[in-house]
Amino acid sequence: MKRIGSLRVSSTKYQVQSMGLKELIVKSIQYQLQGLTSNCLNPFYFLLFTFFVTTFGFSQVELTARTSKKTLGENQRFRLEYNINNQEADNFKLPNFKNFKVVQGPSQSVSNSYSIINGKAQSTFSKTYSYILEPIGKGTFTLEPASIEYQGKKIESNTITVHVVDAVDLPKDPNDPNYIASQNIKMVVTISDENPYVGEPIYAEYRLYVNQLAINSFDVDTPPNYEGFWSQVLDNKNPQFQDGKYKGEMWKYAVLHKVVLIPQRNGELTVNPMSADLVVGVPTGRGDFFGNMITRNVSQRLVSDKKIIKVKSLPLEGKPLDFTGAVGDYSYEVNTSRSVFKANESAQIKVKVSGKGNLKLFELPNIVTPKELEVYDPERKEQVTVTTTGLTGSIQNDYTVVPQFKGKFKVPATSFSYFNPTDKKYHTITSDEILLDVTEGKDLATSLGADYSNGALKQTVKATGNDFRYVHTSTVLEPIEKSEFYKTKLFYILLLLPLVILPLGVFTSKKQRELSRDISRNKLRKADKLTKKYLASAKKELGNKTTFYSSLEKALHNYLKAKLQVETTDISKDSIAEMLTKKEVSKEAITQFIEVFSACEFARYAASSDEKMKEDFDKAKQAITELDKNL
Questions:
Q1: DSSP-assigned states of every residue in 490-526
Q2: Entry pTM
Q3: CA 20 to 30 Å from 171, out of 163, 341, 362, 438?
Q4: Transmembrane residues, as ranges (predicted)?
């Protein structure tokens, strides 16, 4: 469960009945300057702040009309709001609601915020008149504009068209806060492309849409792993509400979760839903003593829809043989850090792909070098950023090349192929060949018929003297020195060896028979063996609670049988403590051993994690070690 916190659709908001500029500034300062030091509240700073506010006001006055629904049933209601962005505008006049009945309103609210950025004061003001309307009949109706006056000029709002259709099913109580909340808050997942190619990045956003409600807090269950996709979650620490459309109507929405997905196979893949538990403030239509709207907090559980993504296979037509799965828009280059150098010095050949798409999810082309060049495994470098359009940046392989001989060596050209989903075509980029000129070093064997091909200087080798000879297919070998085995030291040692081994074997057999008659010793050995066996078995069963604790308990029992020479039926926590006390074992060691027994018994009836089983296993080994020191 991911705790997101509290979000408010509007900033500092309170109800006003009638308030002039001076009173509005005073009350706004009380709201906005909470937490500042007392120095900031002295008369000088107060007058200075008031000056900034009144000086840098609003350059453009607007009256905006908006509605919670543009299409509704004949038996439904909707909210109509008129918003004024300048506190000096007055004489607000409503249009004639001839096709609607006013169920509630007007209610007024004012939002005011101030800030000083780089020495400049900035102020935001909003005054809203709200009405709840109910249609009188079916049809398409246009709400005429409302008007205000500012500096002698008349300013009108926009018109709103409302479609009233047949009555819809409503709950028994349309004013039920839970019903109102469910109708004005939605969880929606948006996908940038629901029909991409394999390897083509897509972008998913999980949005919380709100209409005329306050979100006090919410907990979000982020989606699990996206099966069939490579996924990367984008940073989204401080989600903020902004204006947006939902089903053609204006709502407020906040992006709760952002993720980039790259499908790895064709067919239908599922983008998992996300859920959230919210506490929503629903207006009750009543005001308190100060005129502030009273709201009621209700809990809501929201779950977004499951999205099915239909992934297309990459086309077979025109597919290059060297295609390794790159999808996007890329550039390709192969170059060297230097082309002229000496033998045993190093140079780097860099193979680089840049662009955007499914970077990291395909292989770069390999270079082929002449055998006279020593080439090390490439070092991979990535500079990749995850954005809403996919992976952007570059990937690069750096090959270190060290020549052994003087000469000119050619590294053949390579090619890189990718599929661009924009034009739905394959593209192949071929690099230039690289010529390495090694100016100093050992010469290759020279000859009259020197030939340069396949990237290296090839020369015919001329036989001189006895450098080359035929290989014999058979031979006859004779020992250099000959000796007799009879009467040698090895002869006498092997002769007397049976006389030594026979008595030793008799003695060993007799000793084994004596040891086999020692019942207590045999039990001790068997118990020790079983203890090691069950400890090993318990270690293998880490993660499987039942088998693990069973094996651990058997190991402890067999250890006590070996050390105290008792039967399993005689073992209990009290008897263990009594017997170990008689053996003069320290209280700490006894307590530690008893705790391990208790842990095994408790684990039969309680849940246990992997960490807890590992901890109990270590305690068992430590307890046995402590007893060994005392017994």
A1: HHHHHHHHHHHHHHHHHHHHHHHHHHHH-HHHHHHHH
A2: 0.51
A3: 163
A4: 490-507
